[in-house]
Write a structure and sequence with these properties.
Helices cover 48% and strands 15% of the residues. The chain has helices at 52-56, 77-93, 110-114, 123-138, 192-205, 256-259, 263-292, 303-307, 309-313, 331-344, 358-391, 394-455, 458-509, 512-560, 564-573, 647-654, 693-698, 700-704, 720-725, 727-739, and strands at residues 11-14, 16-22, 33-36, 40-43, 63-66, 69-71, 97-104, 142-154, 157-160, 170-174, 178-182, 187-189, 208-209, 217-218, 221-232, 240-249, 317-325, 348-351, 576-578, 621-623. The protein starts with 10 loop residues before the first strand and ends in an 8-residue tail after the last helix. The structure holds adenosine-5'-triphosphate (ATP). ATP binds at residues 104-111.
Length: 747
Amino acid sequence: MPSLKVPATKKTTTLTVAVKCRPLMRERGRDIVRVNDNKEVVILDPDLSKDYLDRIQNRTKEKKYCFDYAFGPDSTNLDVYTRSIYSVITGVVQGLNATVFAYGSTGSGKTYTMVGTKDDPGLMILSLHTIFDLIRKDKNSDDFDITCSYLEVYNEVIYDLLEKSSGHLELREDPEHGITVAGLRSIKVHSADKILELLNLGNSRRKTDSTEANVTSSRSHAVLEITVKRKQKNKYRSQIMQGKLALVDLAGSERASETNSGGQKLRDGANINRSLLALANCINALGKQQKKGLAYVPYRNSKLTRILKDGLSGNSQTVMVATISLADCQYHHTLNTLKYADRAKEIKTHIQKNIGTVDTHLSDYQRMIDSLQIEVCRLKKELAEKESQLSVKPAEKAADDELSWLNILSHETSENVQERINLQKALFELEETNLRNRTELQHLDDAIAKQQAFEKDRAAMDALTARRQVILDNIRDNDEAEANYQKEIIENEKHRCHLQGMIEEAISNNGNKTYLRILSQYRLLGMNNTELQFEIAMRDQVIHNQREAQRNLWNLLMGLGLDEKRIVDLAAKQGITIEDWTMTPHLRVPERKQLPDLAYGRCSQHGHSPSSPRSYSKSSCIFQHHQDFSSGSFSSGHWNSAPTFCREDHHSSYYLLSHDHSPSAFLTLRRSNEHWVGSRPSSWFGMHVKIPQDLRNSYPEMKTQSSPCGSISAASHSADFGLCHKDTWNNTTRQHLSDVGFHNNQE
Ligand SMILES: Nc1ncnc2c1ncn2[C@@H]1O[C@H](COP(=O)(O)OP(=O)(O)OP(=O)(O)O)[C@@H](O)[C@H]1O
């Protein structure tokens, strides 16, 4: 069931106050109450001894009040109900809250008014009949849900009158639902008779006692609450309304002296009076509030006032039925009741229909429906697409499937190539580092050997040994990392072979479209590979030249034992600027104590005077690329026997993809006499490019197309596509390679 929320529109109303006079019964005395025009109540001075003078001087105790309704002793409960209550009860069925309570002194007829008798049913019974009559009328259009609870407050303790042996119940203050009684039973009812049955049952459990003033005096305050939930049937935007009716029969107020009670009765009376006094105070405060503005309302002074809080000032249309006796002996009680009733007329409440969050809920449902409709549309569209796909001609479908398969294959191939490039780059860096390490290790070994043989300097020996250990550790770590890279490259190559196999299978099985797509993809990858290989070649050549320069310089220095200035001059003649003068001990020239350790120097393009002081810094060795060191006169001696010993290993890794034993490899780069780059017979670098025969068979145009790239046979390199279509880059590269000392044999 959705929760109910109060709508925004409020209507402020005042308490309806009706005064009902009970006929004289067993009391002795005279009738001092007059009801005029069903509104005015006059209570005569009970003292008959007042003379004329007292009356003209207004010293009489006669009082006159005007109320919404006033009922004389001959009026029945039905009269009261019809005129003052009925309209309020109808509101309950329309989602309004209502409170009807009887207020008066003990024996004044409260219970008689609220419950009544068989012949004169009370307001509770009449209200229930009205509710069920109204429900019956609207049963076809609306669904109703009626529940009922009945409680009593006795000695400031709440009991459930619908439970055989109710425990003490507690009040809860809920921000949404207001004051509620925790654990109070709420019974679903389908007829007025059922509620009357429950009412009788509850009344039989109610605490009553015989007092001097009333034989069956109610010792507790009783609250019957009926909740009516109403929902419109079969309507798209149905409303849910909830009305609540509280029918309250208060305990009798009495004075201990009058009731002649003691013990438990006295304590009951004290509590009853306390709660009634609290109610009276609330009525007083609420009455004042309307006249003088805000005032503190002591609801919390008793359970009764807390329960009646809503009825007194909240969302409720409230009727107070003040019951009075006609008897002169009840003058003070009657006057007291009339005073409070008069004050209660000022109390304002704010009534609002409890229209359920039906709108909110409906809007939720609406949103759900909207989103479901969108989903339905989407699914319909998807279904239509699928259906149209099914109706596509088998040949077209096959072509589409093929294209999508090729896209996946193309993507995977591209990833494979990218991975391989990354691995090769990483491996290259690693090997370059290890190359330096190994060179230094060799220097160190030489220096240590020299120390052991000639100098025997203990400190220098220790320093050399420690450094050697560091280098060895580095080499070992790098070797491990290198092995891992190698493994990854092998895996990458396996995957590439697998992809290649798929491509070849596709070529043999499929038509022209597939063939062309594969071909273009294939060539694109070849182009990427060529770029990579050239980049590697350039870097390798730079390194090679650096090593050559170092070798030559060391030979020069070792052969001549020149001083610093002389070395600089000689180096300058070779186009070299020496900037880092860190020497290894075995190379120390006695008179200078320092020599350049060029093994660790860095080389770059030389662009200024070798003798310039500015170039004499301790950071780098600069050389000119155009200088062909290998042609110098210092190539003899032991440095020539110190080869770039890891050179072949070095190449083997980043040329791994070109290994000969891969039959499916389409790009092969390996040492060969057919190298087109590198002019020296002893060149370590060569690049032979060939295309596997099976692949060439698959690509007819490769056999026939002549390469515009001159000496590079189109049929010899699957990457010729790249070479041919990257002229600008290629020319620049070749120029650069030429600059660094390599020349195409055939150029
Ligand atoms: N209008 C009436 N016509 C006939 N008898 C009435 C009427 N009103 C009250 N009585 C009788 O007066 C007596 C006291 O009435 P009732 O018990 O209703 O008073 P009460 O205000 O509820 O008293 P208490 O506060 O002690 O419970 C009862 O016997 C009741 O039958």
